Amino acid sequence: MGSRNRSIRFKIFLLLLLPLLSLSALWGFVLNLTMGDAQSLLRAGTLYRTIGIASTDLGLQLQAERVRSAEALTTRELTDALGGQRARTDQSVGEFRQAVTEAGDATDNLRRPLGTLLGALDRLGPIRADIDSGLSSRLAGLNEYNRILDSIFLLYDHLVTVSDLAILQQAASLQAMGMAREYIAREHALAIGALADGRLTEPETAAFTEYAASRRFLHARGLAGLDVTLRRPYEQVFASEPFQTFVTMEARVVRTGTPPPEAAGWTETISRLASELDKHGLAASEVLAGRTSEAATGTVVEIAIAGGLGLIAVLASIIISVRFGRRLAGELAGLRAAAVELSEQRLPDIMERLRKGEDVDVRKEAKAIKVSGSAEITDVARAFGSVQRTAVTAAVGQAALRRGVGQVFLNLARRKQGLLHRQLALLDGMQRRTHDPDRLEELFRLDHLTTRMRRHAESLIVLSGSAPGRAWRKPVPVIDIVRAAVAEVEDYTRVNVEVMPVSAFDGAAAADLTHLLAELVENATIYSPPDTQVRVGGDQVSNGYAIEVEDKGPGLSAGEYAAFNALLADPPEFDLADSGRLGLFVVARLAARHGVKVLLRRSPFGGTTAIALVPRDLVTEQTALTVGDSGEEMAALPSRTRKKALAVVTSGTHAGLPRRVRQAGLSSRLKDKPSAAPEQPERPAERSPDEVRDLFSAFQRGTQRAREEAQDEGDK
C-alpha cells in the first residue's frame, strides 16, 4: 500500500517523528562524545593506578639491575648484589603482569605497546644468561636493558590518552622529564662500568655523549611545558648542588672521553640527584593523576547536566509534538467528520426532501460548519460552508425548476385532456350520426388514436408527480383491465390474452394499473418483430396477482436487465434528457405509487418477459362473476376503452365466453365485401340500415353515459 492511502494522522506522526528522531540522534551523539571524554579520563586514572605505578617500579628495578650488570660485565664477577637485584626485578615483573590483568578492558588501546613490553621482558632471561656467560660486551649488555626500558617509555606514551589538552600537555612534559631521568641512569651505568677498569672505549664515549645531549634536550623540553606548580620543584632540583656537580662531571666525561675522576663522588652525586628526581617525578605524577580525576569528575557532572537537560529537551519536544500532532489530527478529524456529515447525511437528506416536494429553507438548512483550530482549518470549514450553501441553493433552484417543468407538463396534459375529452365527445356524436360502416370504421380508428393520445397525456401527468384523477368505486375485473390496457396499444391485434383466474383489482387503482399494463404491452409490441405475437397472462399467487407480458424480441443483456430493474424498483428523479425511457419512468412511477413490483427478465423464447406483481391489498376475490356482471363492469370503463376491449382478439373471456371476431355480429351487407367476386349481387341483409343505425345509436348512448359517470368519478 502506497503512502497516499495512509491516514492523515499517520502522516502527521511521520512528519513529527523525523525531527524527533534527528534530535534524539544528535543528543545521543553529543552525549556519546562527552561520555567518551569522561571515560577516557577515568580510564587514564585507572591505568595510572595499575599499570602506571607498576611500570614505574619496574623501570626503577631494571635501571638498578642495569648498573649491577655493568659492573659484572666489567669485572666478570657475579656478586650477591646482582643476584638480589635480579630477584627484586623479577618480583617487579610479576607485579607488572598482575597489574595488566587487573586493568582488564582498560588496556584495549594498549595491546600493541603492552605486547612489545611483555615480549621484551621475556628476553630478560637470555640477556642475563649472556651476561653470566661473558658472551656479551659491556655496551651490548647495557643496550639490551636500554631496549626493555624504551618499551616501558613507549607504554608511557600510550598511557596518556586523555582528551583534556592541558592535562595532555603536562603529561607529555612529565614524560620528557622521566625520559631525561632514564638518560641520567644510562650515563650512570656506563660510567660505573668504566670506573671499574678505568677507561671508556670510543663507542662508549660516543654513547655517553649521545645520552648527555638527549638528557639536556629533554630537560629543556619538559621544563618548558610544565606549569608553575609542577615546574617549581624541578627548577629547585636543577639549581641544587648535586645537579650542578653532575652537570660538571658529565661535561668533563664528554670533553675528555675518560671516566669521572672519583667513583665515590660520582655515585653519591647520582644517588642524591636520582633520589630528588624520582621524588619530584612521583609527586608530579600524583598531582597530575589528581587533576585527571577532577577533570573526569567535572566532565561527568557536565555530562549529567548537559545530558539531563538534553533529555528533558527531547522529552519536552516529544510531548509538545505529540500534543500538537493530536490537536492537529483532531482538528482535521473534526473537519473530516463535518464534511462527511455534509456529503453523506445533510445534503442527501435535503435532496430527498426536495425530491418529495417539501419546501427547504436555505438559511436554515445551510448551517455553518462549526470547527475549531488553526486559521487554515477554519478557512477550509468556511469554504465547505460556502460550498454547502451553494449546493443547497442550486438544489433548491433545481427542485423549483423541476416543479416548474412538472407544473408545465401537468398544465399541458390537463389542457390536452380537456381537448381530448371534447374530441371524444365529437367522435361519439359523429358515430351516432353516421350510418356508413366504412365511416364508422374510420371513426373507430380515430377514436383509437385519441385514446392513445390520452394515455400519453396521462403519462405527462404521471411524470409531473400528479395523479390522472380517474377512479372507480367498485372493483374492476382483472380481465377487463387487461383488455382495456391492450385496447390502448397500436398493434393490439398482435396481443394474445390468455385465460386468467377470475379476480378484480381495487377501483381506485384500476386506471393506473391499466396505464401500467398498457405501457408494458406497447413496449413489447414495439421491440418485437411485427409478425410475432405478444402473450399476456396472469395468475393468482401468494403475494397478490402476477401478470406477465412476454414478447419474442431480441431481448437485452444482463447489464441492461439489471439497470432497468433497478430503475423500476427505485425510480430516480426524472431526467428530461433521457426521453428514450419515458415508458419505463411512467411504469416505475405508477408501480411505486401502488406498491406494484415490476421485473424484467429474459424469456425462454429469447425475448423479454415483464412481470407485474400487484400486491394482495389491491386484489379483490371474485369467484362468481357472471356475464351480466362483466358487462356492468365494462360499462364502468370509458366508451373508447370498452369498444376496443370488445374488439380485442383473445383466447377467451374471464367467464369463458367465445373469442370475439371483428364484424362477426354484423349483417353481410355491413361486412367488408369479398374481393373475389365483386360482380355477384349481395344477399339481402338480415338487418336493415335503420336497425344497424339504431343498434349503434343505442351503443353510443351507453358509452356516453359511461363516460359521463367516469368523468364525474374523476372530478370527485
Automatic annotation (TrEMBL):
Domain Histidine kinase/HSP90-like ATPase: 508-618
Keyword match Aminoacyl-tRNA synthetase: no
Residue stretches of biased makeup (Basic and acidic residues): 669-694
Domain of life the protein comes from: Bacteria
Key words, A-Z: Kinase, Phosphoprotein, Transferase
InterPro entries cross-referenced by the UniProt entry: HATPase_C_sf, HATPase_dom, Nitrate/nitrite_sensing, TCS_sensor_his_kinase
PANTHER family: SENSOR HISTIDINE KINASE TRCS, SENSOR HISTIDINE KINASE YKOH
Taxonomic lineage of the native organism: Bacteria, Bacillati, Actinomycetota, Actinomycetes, Streptosporangiales
GO molecular function: protein histidine kinase activity
Reactions it catalyzes: ATP + protein L-histidine = ADP + protein N-phospho-L-histidine
Single GO BP term: phosphorelay signal transduction system
EC number: 2.7.13.3
Region called Disordered, residue ranges: 657-716
Gene Ontology cellular component annotations, sorted alphabetically: plasma membrane
UniProt name for this protein: histidine kinase
Record carries keyword Phosphoprotein: yes
